[in-house]
Predict the structure.
Amino acid sequence: MHSFSIRDLRERTGELSKEAEKGNLALITKHGRPMFVSVPFTENLLKNGVHVALAESLYQSGSLSIGKAAKLAGLSIAEFSEHLSRLNIAVVDYPADELENELSYFSS
């Protein structure tokens, strides 16, 4: 998530717009303190609402755990996991070596 100050809104409007077009959230700050989050207006936002779209984006960027994202979305962890799976967003993201180590327990 990119961060923009109030001053940046005047001077870097084009950059903020490009980030929104890419579907990226942006944090807007004043004197270094968060004021609000810019949420891109997407089909997903229209279909699922702002809470779910925000939770998806924050989870996918690694800013929120699946539990906190599910809570923000107003869904159970299972429901949110299913929702992410339908969008082809990885619910479990293991590094390759860690995944091999985990899978080795099943072949023992």
User: Anything to note?
Assistant: The helical segments are 6-11, 13-21, 43-48, 50-60, 66-73, 77-86, 96-107. The chain has a mean pLDDT of 85. Residues 41-108 form one domain. The chain is about 55% helix and 15% strand.
